[in-house]
Amino acid sequence: MNSSTIMGYAALAKGQPLETFAYAKTALGDHEVRVAITHCGLCFSDVQAIDDFYHITEFPFVPGHEIVGTISEVGKAVTQLKKGDRVGIGWQGRACMKCEWCLRGEVNLCQDIVHTASWTPYGGFSSSIAVDENFAYKLPEGMLSEVAAVLMCAGITVFTPLRSYSSTPSLRIGIVGVGGLGHLAIQFAKALGYKVAAISSSPDKKKEALALGADQFIVAHDQDAMQKVAYYFDLLLGTAHGGVDWDNVLGILKKKGKLILVGFPEMTFRPIDLVAHQLSISGSFLGTPAGMREMLSFAQTYNIQPMIELMPMAQINPAIERLKKNRARYRIVLVNDPKDK
Ligand SMILES: [Zn+2]
Ligand SMILES: [Zn+2]
Fold first, then answer.
1. How far is the CA of 155 from the centre of ligand 1 (A)?
2. Whose CA is closest to 188, among 333, 331, 91, 300?
């Protein structure tokens, strides 16, 4: 392979399986680092983006935003990282640094968020990637690369909202959905000191949810079980992508309770409970670079362990099928063959 060429896996059009895709290496910006990718986790939003669910996907599209690798090249003005450092990269690979939100330090809300993705122009199911040095995070020594990969999107996504309430650990928290995001949310919520319930439509996930640290497991369509926790939760974290009866879920929130969505599910509900019980529904998107560093250190200290299935990068299409069929337990991480560098 020519060293000026990067090899990746791309969807050439909406909804298509990925194909091997060669593209030219572009010159590195002054503040950018190039990372030789060893691992990349598969997130449900990769699948949604292949299907152009967000209406922002440009094809050919190389997904992948739970990236771990080693820095192979640094731009002229890079100060924090050096060649050979092992780093993680999440969904965001840069920010405009000019808009209201960037100036406030909330770069995950950058007004130009569509163009800040690490998958712009091409993402992590690839041999290498270039991002701004502020969005490549040096990994704790001893943390497995596949663990770090999953923390880059799933980890920060659930840690950020859970951490924001941690001054009141007496809150009753329910994690709606036990999957790639939910199985990590249970662990983070427990480590932050909350009483945690896992709420899932799959009764077979009970044993694992309890082993991950949930104090309680509730089957979402079991009306008796849901009735027992009516008006019970202060906070629900919505991690499921689908199959949720939202009216049922709103019924287990305490008055003035809050549902925070971190996935992108389709949602229908009758607003009666929302109004009469003064409930709120909000979203949480990624996290800041400072939050990312805190999350990595917290995960290392509290031994947060994503459950991972490792597969070779060349198996990307079977991996996507497995995730679509809800068979991944709970996160698939694709590993690059070192020969492909
Ligand atoms: Zn993701
Ligand atoms: Zn901005």
1. 9
2. 300
